[in-house]
Amino acid sequence: xxxxxxxxxxxxxxxxxxxxxxxxxxxxxxxxxxxxxxxxxxxxxxxxxxxxxxxxxxxxxxxxxxxxxxxxxxxxxxxxxxxxxxxxxxxxxxxxxxxxxxxxxxxxxxxxxxxxxxxxxxxxxxxxxxxxxxxxxxxxxxxxxxxxxxxxxxxxxxxxxxxxxxxxxxxxxxxxxxxxxxxxxxxxxxxxxxxxxxxxxxxxxxxxxxxxxxxxxxxxxxxxxxxxxxxxxxxxxxxxxxxxxxxxxxxxxxxxxxxxxxxxxxxxxxxxxxxxxxxxxxxxxxxxxxxxxxxxx
Length: 297
Known about the structure:
Blueprint: E1 5-7, E2 10-12, H1 14-23, H2 25-62, H3 67-92, H4 97-114, H5 116-131, E3 139-142, E4 145-152, E5 156-160, E6 166-170, H6 171-176, E7 180-181, E8 187-189, E9 192-196, H7 202-214, E10 226-232, E11 237-242, E12 244-246, H8 250-267, H9 287-296
Antiparallel strand pairs: 1-2, 3-4, 3-7, 4-5, 5-6, 8-12, 9-11, 10-11
């Protein structure tokens, strides 16, 4: 039997291989242990990350956080914690984690400089979900756009306009401009300005306006509706009509009550005047002009 075995054209001495294995047994076992522990760190760490994210999501839902906000926070936490788990696993393999962190930091700085606008939108998204100026489903006005909030994403907020258009507003724009949330409170005030003729009986007009307002069952008794003279305008006496309604009833009341006011004023014979201007013409007698005209004749 040949002293050396030939495998794939390479001479292998069994005695030398056994000697090398015995000499490096501790190193091999340590390497296998490191690989196994790194895999365990990844598996167990991923399981723990999912459990923590799920628990935080349940906790936020119990505190009545919006579903979109909950998903946003869960995703952010999951990515951050998974990065920490990967760094821990690399540490078990003997990789210098300080260098890894430094590389990640340098890469993050480079990416940050290249994507300043996107990162500012990301930071703005964090502020939105933290301070919660609005939630999914609220009707808001941001960046000059009005619509219902469809979703709050990492870099943008998606709105659905009343005519069913999707508008994507960068989160940086949302934070840097005034935010008007029409759905935040349970009640809203409907504001009208109604002009009537100067010849109208003001007390009668006020009573007619109040009857039209109080006839609508959706108008709240508390706070009480307000009807009063606002201004003596150029061609009309202007009344303000300010009933309070539930936020969900706002647009229905707005349109239907305006019609009811017009019908009530017509029934009482109260005129809503058109804008008008009185022009007075005065004849000025000029003797010199008359003499000049006679000379021409």
